[in-house]
Amino acid sequence: MTETAINSTKSAWPTLSIVTLLVCCGLAVGRDCSECHKLRLTGGDLSAWRGNTGDWTVVQDAALAPGNETLLAGQAGAGAILNGPQGKTVNLLTKQEFGDVRAHVEFMVSKDSNSGVYLMGRYEVQVFDSWQKPSEYPGIECGGVYERWDESRDPKGFEGHSPRVNASKAPGQWQTFDVVFRAPRFDKNGRKIANARFEKVVHNSVLVHRAVEVTGPTRASAYEDEKPLGPLMLQGDHGPVAYRNLWVAPAGPNPFFAMDTATVDPNHKTAAQQAQMLKELGYDGLGPAYSGVGPLAETLKELDARDLQLFALYTGINIDPGAQAYDPSLKEAM
Questions:
Q1: 251: closest CA among 196, 175, 193, 194?
Q2: What confidence tens digit (pLDDT) does each residue in 116-173 have?
Q3: Is 13 a member of any domain?
Q4: What are the two backbone dihedrals, phi and then psi, of residue 273, each rounded to the nearest 5 degrees?
Q5: Mean pLDDT over all residues of the chain?
Q6: What pTM did the predictor assign?
Q7: Are strands 20-21 and 230-234 parallel, antiparallel or unpaired?
Q8: Based on the domain organization, do 203 and 315 belong to the same domain?
Q9: How far is 134 from 1, CA to CA, in rounded Å?
Q10: Structural domain count, the chain
Q11: What's the CA gap between 311 and 115, in Å, rounded?
Protein backbone atom coordinates (compact mmCIF):
# COMPACT_ATOMS: atom_id res chain seq x y z
CA MET A 1 0.00 0.00 0.00
CA THR A 2 1.29 3.46 -0.88
CA GLU A 3 -0.25 6.65 0.51
CA THR A 4 0.62 10.28 -0.15
CA ALA A 5 -1.51 11.91 2.53
CA ILE A 6 -2.79 11.32 6.04
CA ASN A 7 -6.32 9.94 6.05
CA SER A 8 -7.86 9.10 9.41
CA THR A 9 -11.51 10.11 9.03
CA LYS A 10 -13.14 7.74 6.58
CA SER A 11 -12.44 4.34 8.12
CA ALA A 12 -12.78 2.64 11.46
CA TRP A 13 -9.16 1.65 10.92
CA PRO A 14 -7.36 4.88 9.95
CA THR A 15 -4.22 4.78 7.86
CA LEU A 16 -1.14 6.75 8.83
CA SER A 17 1.45 7.49 6.20
CA ILE A 18 4.77 9.25 5.81
CA VAL A 19 5.80 9.26 2.14
CA THR A 20 5.59 5.49 1.66
CA LEU A 21 3.87 2.93 3.85
CA LEU A 22 5.13 -0.53 3.00
CA VAL A 23 3.24 -2.64 5.52
CA CYS A 24 0.06 -1.55 7.26
CA CYS A 25 -2.71 -2.91 9.40
CA GLY A 26 -5.66 -1.24 11.18
CA LEU A 27 -5.08 1.19 14.00
CA ALA A 28 -7.05 2.45 16.97
CA VAL A 29 -6.27 3.33 20.56
CA GLY A 30 -7.02 0.79 23.28
CA ARG A 31 -6.42 -2.59 24.82
CA ASP A 32 -8.22 -5.90 24.59
CA CYS A 33 -10.95 -6.87 27.04
CA SER A 34 -9.70 -10.04 28.73
CA GLU A 35 -12.53 -12.54 29.28
CA CYS A 36 -15.43 -10.07 29.60
CA HIS A 37 -18.94 -10.78 28.29
CA LYS A 38 -18.11 -14.30 27.15
CA LEU A 39 -21.01 -16.01 25.37
CA ARG A 40 -20.85 -19.81 25.36
CA LEU A 41 -22.31 -21.55 22.31
CA THR A 42 -21.87 -25.22 23.26
CA GLY A 43 -22.74 -27.05 26.45
CA GLY A 44 -25.89 -28.77 27.62
CA ASP A 45 -28.19 -28.08 24.66
CA LEU A 46 -28.52 -26.53 21.20
CA SER A 47 -30.41 -23.43 22.34
CA ALA A 48 -27.78 -21.01 20.98
CA TRP A 49 -28.46 -22.17 17.40
CA ARG A 50 -31.31 -21.13 15.14
CA GLY A 51 -33.94 -23.15 13.27
CA ASN A 52 -33.55 -26.76 12.23
CA THR A 53 -30.45 -28.27 13.85
CA GLY A 54 -30.67 -31.51 11.86
CA ASP A 55 -28.74 -34.44 13.29
CA TRP A 56 -26.50 -32.33 15.52
CA THR A 57 -26.42 -34.07 18.90
CA VAL A 58 -25.27 -33.03 22.36
CA VAL A 59 -22.63 -35.47 23.66
CA GLN A 60 -20.15 -35.57 26.50
CA ASP A 61 -17.16 -36.43 24.32
CA ALA A 62 -16.25 -37.82 20.91
CA ALA A 63 -13.70 -40.28 19.56
CA LEU A 64 -12.90 -42.15 16.36
CA ALA A 65 -15.56 -44.79 15.77
CA PRO A 66 -14.41 -48.34 16.59
CA GLY A 67 -13.34 -50.06 13.40
CA ASN A 68 -13.85 -46.97 11.21
CA GLU A 69 -11.48 -44.03 11.63
CA THR A 70 -13.40 -42.00 9.04
CA LEU A 71 -16.33 -41.59 11.49
CA LEU A 72 -16.73 -40.14 14.96
CA ALA A 73 -18.74 -41.70 17.79
CA GLY A 74 -20.26 -39.70 20.61
CA GLN A 75 -20.31 -40.52 24.30
CA ALA A 76 -23.61 -39.89 26.06
CA GLY A 77 -23.75 -36.78 28.19
CA ALA A 78 -23.35 -33.05 27.71
CA GLY A 79 -20.59 -30.56 26.94
CA ALA A 80 -19.93 -31.06 23.22
CA ILE A 81 -21.87 -31.33 19.96
CA LEU A 82 -21.48 -33.88 17.14
CA ASN A 83 -22.90 -33.66 13.61
CA GLY A 84 -24.72 -36.99 13.75
CA PRO A 85 -23.71 -40.65 13.44
CA GLN A 86 -22.90 -40.34 9.71
CA GLY A 87 -21.08 -37.01 10.02
CA LYS A 88 -23.22 -35.17 7.51
CA THR A 89 -26.06 -32.83 8.40
CA VAL A 90 -27.12 -29.18 8.20
CA ASN A 91 -24.93 -26.20 8.96
CA LEU A 92 -25.48 -24.51 12.33
CA LEU A 93 -25.95 -20.74 12.60
CA THR A 94 -26.15 -18.87 15.88
CA LYS A 95 -29.31 -17.01 16.85
CA GLN A 96 -27.22 -14.03 17.85
CA GLU A 97 -25.25 -11.98 15.30
CA PHE A 98 -21.80 -10.50 15.80
CA GLY A 99 -19.33 -8.03 14.33
CA ASP A 100 -15.84 -7.83 15.86
CA VAL A 101 -15.26 -10.89 18.05
CA ARG A 102 -12.74 -13.05 19.78
CA ALA A 103 -13.69 -16.69 19.28
CA HIS A 104 -12.40 -19.81 20.99
CA VAL A 105 -13.17 -23.10 19.25
CA GLU A 106 -12.30 -26.67 20.20
CA PHE A 107 -12.94 -29.25 17.50
CA MET A 108 -12.27 -32.85 16.49
CA VAL A 109 -12.31 -34.38 13.02
CA SER A 110 -12.14 -37.96 11.83
CA LYS A 111 -9.68 -39.17 9.19
CA ASP A 112 -10.01 -37.17 5.94
CA SER A 113 -12.88 -35.09 7.32
CA ASN A 114 -13.72 -31.47 6.60
CA SER A 115 -15.69 -28.70 8.29
CA GLY A 116 -15.32 -24.98 8.86
CA VAL A 117 -16.01 -22.11 11.22
CA TYR A 118 -17.55 -19.12 9.39
CA LEU A 119 -17.30 -15.75 11.09
CA MET A 120 -20.46 -13.74 10.32
CA GLY A 121 -21.60 -16.79 8.31
CA ARG A 122 -19.31 -15.54 5.54
CA TYR A 123 -15.57 -15.85 6.25
CA GLU A 124 -14.24 -19.35 6.87
CA VAL A 125 -11.42 -20.68 8.97
CA GLN A 126 -10.99 -24.18 7.58
CA VAL A 127 -11.42 -27.25 9.78
CA PHE A 128 -9.74 -30.17 8.02
CA ASP A 129 -7.75 -33.32 8.61
CA SER A 130 -4.34 -31.92 7.67
CA TRP A 131 -2.34 -34.28 9.87
CA GLN A 132 0.96 -34.96 8.07
CA LYS A 133 -0.57 -34.01 4.71
CA PRO A 134 0.76 -31.71 1.97
CA SER A 135 -1.37 -28.78 0.91
CA GLU A 136 -3.51 -29.12 -2.22
CA TYR A 137 -4.15 -25.37 -2.58
CA PRO A 138 -3.97 -22.26 -0.37
CA GLY A 139 -6.66 -22.21 2.31
CA ILE A 140 -7.63 -25.91 2.21
CA GLU A 141 -5.37 -26.69 5.16
CA CYS A 142 -6.67 -26.84 8.72
CA GLY A 143 -6.41 -23.31 10.05
CA GLY A 144 -6.42 -21.85 6.53
CA VAL A 145 -8.55 -18.86 5.60
CA TYR A 146 -10.55 -20.52 2.86
CA GLU A 147 -10.56 -19.29 -0.73
CA ARG A 148 -13.20 -17.19 -2.44
CA TRP A 149 -14.92 -18.53 -5.58
CA ASP A 150 -15.96 -17.02 -8.89
CA GLU A 151 -17.16 -19.16 -11.81
CA SER A 152 -16.07 -16.47 -14.29
CA ARG A 153 -12.43 -16.54 -13.15
CA ASP A 154 -9.60 -18.86 -14.09
CA PRO A 155 -8.80 -20.37 -11.70
CA LYS A 156 -12.20 -20.09 -10.05
CA GLY A 157 -10.77 -20.21 -6.53
CA PHE A 158 -8.78 -17.19 -5.33
CA GLU A 159 -7.54 -15.39 -2.22
CA GLY A 160 -7.04 -18.54 -0.13
CA HIS A 161 -4.54 -18.07 2.68
CA SER A 162 -2.48 -21.00 3.93
CA PRO A 163 -1.48 -21.10 7.60
CA ARG A 164 2.13 -20.19 8.31
CA VAL A 165 2.63 -23.60 9.94
CA ASN A 166 0.80 -26.93 9.75
CA ALA A 167 -0.12 -27.16 13.44
CA SER A 168 -2.63 -30.01 13.01
CA LYS A 169 -3.03 -32.91 15.38
CA ALA A 170 -3.98 -36.44 14.38
CA PRO A 171 -7.63 -37.30 13.68
CA GLY A 172 -9.56 -38.12 16.83
CA GLN A 173 -7.73 -35.53 18.95
CA TRP A 174 -9.23 -32.30 20.22
CA GLN A 175 -7.72 -29.19 18.63
CA THR A 176 -8.15 -25.46 19.23
CA PHE A 177 -8.58 -22.21 17.33
CA ASP A 178 -8.30 -18.79 18.95
CA VAL A 179 -9.40 -16.08 16.55
CA VAL A 180 -9.59 -12.30 16.68
CA PHE A 181 -11.82 -11.12 13.84
CA ARG A 182 -12.76 -7.65 12.58
CA ALA A 183 -15.99 -7.16 10.65
CA PRO A 184 -16.09 -5.09 7.45
CA ARG A 185 -16.86 -1.39 7.88
CA PHE A 186 -19.50 0.62 6.03
CA ASP A 187 -20.18 4.33 5.72
CA LYS A 188 -23.57 5.95 6.41
CA ASN A 189 -24.68 5.15 2.86
CA GLY A 190 -23.87 1.44 3.22
CA ARG A 191 -20.74 1.58 1.05
CA LYS A 192 -17.99 -0.72 2.30
CA ILE A 193 -14.93 1.26 3.39
CA ALA A 194 -12.86 -1.51 5.01
CA ASN A 195 -12.61 -5.25 4.37
CA ALA A 196 -13.22 -7.97 6.92
CA ARG A 197 -9.98 -8.95 8.60
CA PHE A 198 -8.61 -11.86 10.59
CA GLU A 199 -6.45 -9.96 13.04
CA LYS A 200 -5.06 -13.18 14.45
CA VAL A 201 -5.65 -16.93 14.14
CA VAL A 202 -3.91 -19.28 16.57
CA HIS A 203 -4.14 -23.03 15.90
CA ASN A 204 -3.16 -25.35 18.75
CA SER A 205 -1.25 -22.47 20.41
CA VAL A 206 0.67 -21.70 17.18
CA LEU A 207 0.17 -18.35 15.42
CA VAL A 208 -0.87 -19.25 11.86
CA HIS A 209 -2.31 -15.94 10.58
CA ARG A 210 -1.76 -12.28 11.33
CA ALA A 211 -3.70 -9.43 9.68
CA VAL A 212 -5.34 -11.32 6.80
CA GLU A 213 -7.93 -9.26 4.89
CA VAL A 214 -10.85 -10.94 3.15
CA THR A 215 -12.36 -8.95 0.27
CA GLY A 216 -15.67 -10.83 0.34
CA PRO A 217 -17.41 -14.02 1.51
CA THR A 218 -15.41 -17.22 1.13
CA ARG A 219 -16.72 -20.26 -0.74
CA ALA A 220 -19.79 -22.12 0.64
CA SER A 221 -20.71 -19.24 2.95
CA ALA A 222 -24.30 -18.76 4.10
CA TYR A 223 -24.52 -15.35 2.42
CA GLU A 224 -23.08 -13.72 -0.69
CA ASP A 225 -23.39 -10.16 0.59
CA GLU A 226 -21.51 -8.34 3.36
CA LYS A 227 -23.04 -6.61 6.39
CA PRO A 228 -21.88 -5.12 9.71
CA LEU A 229 -23.22 -8.12 11.69
CA GLY A 230 -23.72 -11.82 11.06
CA PRO A 231 -24.08 -15.18 12.83
CA LEU A 232 -21.28 -17.62 13.52
CA MET A 233 -21.72 -20.74 11.38
CA LEU A 234 -20.43 -24.29 11.81
CA GLN A 235 -20.27 -26.35 8.63
CA GLY A 236 -22.00 -29.68 9.18
CA ASP A 237 -22.36 -31.21 5.70
CA HIS A 238 -18.76 -31.96 4.72
CA GLY A 239 -17.71 -34.70 7.15
CA PRO A 240 -17.70 -35.89 10.77
CA VAL A 241 -16.84 -33.17 13.27
CA ALA A 242 -17.38 -32.41 16.94
CA TYR A 243 -17.16 -29.06 18.72
CA ARG A 244 -16.88 -28.15 22.37
CA ASN A 245 -16.04 -25.16 24.57
CA LEU A 246 -16.99 -22.76 21.78
CA TRP A 247 -17.40 -19.18 22.94
CA VAL A 248 -17.23 -15.64 21.60
CA ALA A 249 -16.43 -12.36 23.35
CA PRO A 250 -15.88 -8.75 22.31
CA ALA A 251 -12.70 -8.32 20.28
CA GLY A 252 -11.80 -5.09 22.04
CA PRO A 253 -10.31 -2.04 20.35
CA ASN A 254 -8.16 -2.33 17.25
CA PRO A 255 -4.39 -2.64 17.74
CA PHE A 256 -2.35 0.47 18.48
CA PHE A 257 1.31 0.88 17.54
CA ALA A 258 4.08 3.40 18.10
CA MET A 259 6.53 4.96 15.66
CA ASP A 260 10.21 4.59 16.52
CA THR A 261 10.60 8.38 16.52
CA ALA A 262 8.89 8.21 19.92
CA THR A 263 10.61 5.12 21.30
CA VAL A 264 14.32 5.87 20.92
CA ASP A 265 16.00 7.64 23.84
CA PRO A 266 19.22 7.20 25.86
CA ASN A 267 17.66 4.30 27.78
CA HIS A 268 16.08 2.59 24.78
CA LYS A 269 18.63 2.44 21.99
CA THR A 270 18.45 -1.22 20.97
CA ALA A 271 15.59 -3.10 19.31
CA ALA A 272 15.27 -5.27 22.44
CA GLN A 273 14.98 -2.25 24.72
CA GLN A 274 12.39 -0.59 22.49
CA ALA A 275 10.31 -3.76 22.13
CA GLN A 276 10.35 -4.41 25.87
CA MET A 277 9.22 -0.86 26.60
CA LEU A 278 6.32 -1.16 24.14
CA LYS A 279 5.28 -4.46 25.71
CA GLU A 280 5.31 -2.98 29.20
CA LEU A 281 3.33 0.09 28.08
CA GLY A 282 0.64 -2.03 26.40
CA TYR A 283 1.30 -1.26 22.75
CA ASP A 284 0.69 -3.92 20.11
CA GLY A 285 3.78 -3.23 18.02
CA LEU A 286 6.01 -0.80 16.19
CA GLY A 287 6.16 1.15 12.93
CA PRO A 288 9.86 1.98 12.46
CA ALA A 289 11.75 3.89 9.81
CA TYR A 290 13.70 1.66 7.45
CA SER A 291 17.43 1.60 8.16
CA GLY A 292 18.59 -1.58 6.43
CA VAL A 293 17.99 -5.32 6.28
CA GLY A 294 20.03 -6.13 9.39
CA PRO A 295 18.30 -3.67 11.75
CA LEU A 296 14.90 -4.72 10.39
CA ALA A 297 15.65 -8.41 11.02
CA GLU A 298 16.75 -7.60 14.58
CA THR A 299 13.59 -5.58 15.19
CA LEU A 300 11.40 -8.42 13.89
CA LYS A 301 13.17 -10.93 16.14
CA GLU A 302 12.64 -8.81 19.24
CA LEU A 303 9.00 -8.08 18.38
CA ASP A 304 8.26 -11.77 17.75
CA ALA A 305 9.83 -12.72 21.08
CA ARG A 306 7.23 -10.53 22.84
CA ASP A 307 4.22 -11.33 20.63
CA LEU A 308 4.33 -7.83 19.15
CA GLN A 309 3.81 -6.93 15.50
CA LEU A 310 5.55 -4.90 12.82
CA PHE A 311 2.69 -2.69 11.64
CA ALA A 312 4.40 -0.33 9.23
CA LEU A 313 7.76 0.41 7.69
CA TYR A 314 8.59 3.94 6.63
CA THR A 315 11.08 5.06 4.03
CA GLY A 316 11.83 8.15 1.97
CA ILE A 317 11.45 8.39 -1.79
CA ASN A 318 13.80 10.62 -3.81
CA ILE A 319 11.95 12.28 -6.70
CA ASP A 320 14.89 14.33 -8.02
CA PRO A 321 15.57 13.60 -11.72
CA GLY A 322 18.35 11.05 -12.19
CA ALA A 323 18.58 10.23 -8.47
CA GLN A 324 18.23 6.76 -7.01
CA ALA A 325 14.56 6.63 -6.01
CA TYR A 326 14.86 4.35 -3.00
CA ASP A 327 17.25 2.12 -1.08
CA PRO A 328 17.75 -0.99 -3.31
CA SER A 329 17.95 -3.21 -0.23
CA LEU A 330 14.20 -2.66 0.27
CA LYS A 331 13.50 -5.56 -2.08
CA GLU A 332 15.49 -7.91 0.11
CA ALA A 333 13.91 -6.46 3.24
CA MET A 334 10.38 -7.02 1.92
A1: 196
A2: 999 999 999 999 999 999 999 999 999 999 999 999 999 999 999 999 999 999 999 9
A3: no
A4: -65, -40
A5: 88
A6: 0.78
A7: unpaired
A8: no
A9: 32
A10: 2
A11: 32
Same domain, 219 and 279: no
Percent composition of the chain: helix, strand, coil (DSSP 3-state, to 5): 10, 35, 55
> Side by side, which strands form the sheet with 257-259?
257-259, 285-287, 309-310
Range of the domain at 27: 20-31+254-333
Domain membership flag for residue 195: yes
The answer on 262 and 239 residing in a single domain is no
Same domain membership, residue 280 and residue 182: no
Mean of pLDDT values over 180-207: 96
Last residue within a domain, chosen from 222, 250, 278? 250
Q: Are residues 129 and 231 in the same domain?
A: yes
Phi first, then psi: give them for residue 151, nearest 5 degrees: -60, -25
**238 Cβ contact partners less than 8 Å away, ≥ 6 residues apart:** 88, 113, 114, 115, 116
Provide the 3-class DSSP secondary structure of residue 281. helix
Q: Shortest CA distance to 286 belongs to which of 294, 61, 298?
A: 298
Is residue 256 exposed (0-12), middle (13-18) or buried (19+ Cβ within 10 Å)? middle
